[in-house]
Amino acid sequence: MKGRNELKVAVLGAGTIGGAVAEALAPHGPVVATRKRAEPNPRLEAAGVRLLGDNGEAAGWADLVVLAVKPRQVVPVLLEVGHACAGKPVVSFAAAISLEILQRSAPQARFFRAMTNTAARIGQAFTVFAPGRGMEEGDLRAAEGLFARLGDWQQVEETHLDVLTAMAGSGPAYIYTVLEALILGALRVGLPRDLALQAAAHTAIGAAHLLLESGEHPAELRDQVTTPGGVTIEGIYELEEGRVRTAFMKAVCAASAKATELAEAACLQAEECRVRSLQRVG
Ligand SMILES: NC(=O)C1=CN([C@@H]2O[C@H](COP(=O)(O)OP(=O)(O)OC[C@H]3O[C@@H](n4cnc5c(N)ncnc54)[C@H](O)[C@@H]3O)[C@@H](O)[C@H]2O)C=CC1
Ligand SMILES: O=C(O)[C@@H]1CCC=N1
């Protein structure tokens, strides 16, 4: 494989995640993207992304293919473009679609199964990935180069990907729920809207950086804020009454269980698609 800067990348499915990936990569090398309807997309075009209407043409042109269609579209798209992906690394960002399904749908391609989040749009995502079988020299470097454009990244065991989908992939939705609630609380007391938003967002950023940089446990860091008989403990007391920690634990468990359920449904769908395509050939 060539170094990332010379790689031609095709993003199949330039929606929320595919669009973010295409935008992040375009300043550093040639990128084409496809969508279901290839209508003009000024934002992607301004970023230098060329839109194509044909997945096979896009994949055939590329050195590295990114798959960012909805999970139910993954197998049909791979059956459509498998020949054009032959001998190439393919990065799938689809939730719940296992390496086994990816590899069986396009056996001649080499797959990475990855999960990222919407902060990829500004290069601040956390991306996790597991490589499939048969990687060639340079594949890992090319994929890591791509993930680095999206933010921080880490290689993980595939078995962790469903729960990481519920954490790193879905996570921004939970954080926005918290931030929205904090803003609403401040509005209720009468803080101006913009000031409430700035205070909530910057406080979340600072708290997350301190957690990563200090290496201290979140409970320890929370304790440092909580003055005996002071202000914070009144807020913490209300949160505990609302069983907020239980609610978040249940949220991650439920989302993770859903990812596993989707993975099981995806296996059945993959089998149905394969049978239908074999019947068409026969
Ligand atoms: N939205 C999120 O926060 C995250 C989503 N993902 C995964 O990324 C994938 C895409 O999700 P979103 O970006 O949210 O969906 P989306 O609906 O915004 O984007 C999907 C795109 O695929 C296009 N598309 C549909 N059928 C196609 C086909 N046959 N050929 C080419 N393009 C086609 C659609 O036109 C659309 O632009 C999913 O598999 C999801 O699990 C992963 C991480 C986070
Ligand atoms: O909700 C979903 O299924 C996707 C996967 C992670 C974030 N969004």
How would you describe this protein?
The chain is α/β, with parallel strands linked by helices. The chain has 2 domains: 4-157, NAD(P)-binding Rossmann-like Domain (Rossmann fold, 3-Layer(aba) Sandwich); 170-242, ProC C-terminal domain-like fold (Orthogonal Bundle). It is built from 12 helices and 8 strands. It has an 8-stranded mixed β-sheet, sandwiched between helices. Strand 2 (31-34), helix 2 and strand 3 (50-52) form a beta-alpha-beta unit. It is elongated, with a radius of gyration of 22 Å. The two termini are 36 Å apart. The model has no long low-confidence stretch (mean pLDDT 94). Residues 95, 165, 169-170 line the site of (2S)-3,4-dihydro-2H-pyrrole-2-carboxylic acid.
List the helices and strands and how they pair.
Blueprint: E1 9-12, H1 16-25, E2 31-34, H2 42-46, E3 50-52, H3 55-61, E4 64-67, H4 71-85, E5 89-92, H5 99-105, E6 110-115, E7 125-131, H6 139-150, E8 151-155, H7 161-169, H8 171-189, H9 193-214, H10 218-225, H11 232-241, H12 244-281
Parallel strand pairs: 1-2, 1-4, 2-3, 4-5, 5-6, 7-8
Antiparallel strand pairs: 6-7
Helix pairs in contact: 3-4, 4-12, 7-12, 8-9
This protein binds 1,4-dihydronicotinamide adenine dinucleotide and (2S)-3,4-dihydro-2H-pyrrole-2-carboxylic acid (A1CAB).
Domain Pyrroline-5-carboxylate reductase dimerisation: 158-262
Protein name: Pyrroline-5-carboxylate reductase
Main location: cytoplasm
